[in-house]
Specification:
265 residues; alpha/beta; four-stranded mixed β-sheet; binds adenosine-5'-triphosphate; binds magnesium ion
Length: 265
Amino acid sequence: MSTVLSGVLPGIPSGTSPGAQPSARAAPAVFVLEQAAVRFGLGTRTLQALCDVNLQIDAGERVALIGANGCGKSTLLRLLHGLVQPSNGRVQFDAQLVQAMVFQRPFLLRTTAQNNVALGLWLRGSAWAPAKRLALEALGRFGLAEQALRPARKLSGGQQQRVALARAWALQPRVLLLDEPTSSLDPHAKSEVEALIQHIAAHDPAMTLVFASHNLGQVKRLASRVVYLEQGRVLADLPVQEFFAVGALALRYPQAHAFVKGEPV
Ligand SMILES: Nc1ncnc2c1ncn2[C@@H]1O[C@H](COP(=O)(O)OP(=O)(O)OP(=O)(O)O)[C@@H](O)[C@H]1O
Ligand SMILES: [Mg+2]
């Protein structure tokens, strides 16, 4: 039977999960996954999207999820955000921490950009007038002040992605989950949005960031730790410097090395 425990993670000493890194962990655990699995479908038509995932993510970590299409990155993010349940294993997270997630395809409502952002705040208990003010500020932060009153769904793909990011940022999350946050942006917007993510992370060291990306340069710039997935399993989990260290990856994790080199895996 699957078990999802949510709550204040009492009594989970840092660094004790099966997948924990040997490095000293000073920050509290934000997520602990033990033998977590996600299966989609029923009966004989099932698909194992995640399998035996052991992972501990601590406050303030910047974790990049990488791997080929279909390896389970989005499913893992959705599992962390509580949008899918584990079919096996255990997922623990601190339900008191505000989480926000930006999806691979921005999900925007049929109203203005400003209302989209304000609605996120209103749903979390803010009154409407301050929510609208904060929404405008958040849109300005993401270079969209002039688009605030335009219907969100009429904006370009990149602008829509930035509205989704502004909506997440406005919530002042303690845990930010980003699914390929810049994949639909042009090169200029890509580096602008990446710089904003970097800025947000730098000014809020306690915020935990987990993001999926196919952009290895971006992973190097934003992540402190890299989790490499293959067919739903975590095959490598290393600090970013070790992951990209010349030679080391090839010796320890040849499949992850092949992926980084762009070879078939
Ligand atoms: N809701 C769903 N129902 C059935 N199968 C699903 C569902 N969501 C994901 N899958 C399957 O689970 C596997 C993992 O998908 P997932 O979207 O997590 O991969 P990904 O690593 O994010 O891929 P990409 O790089 O293309 O975004 C895939 O085989 C996918 O088809
Ligand atoms: Mg995905």
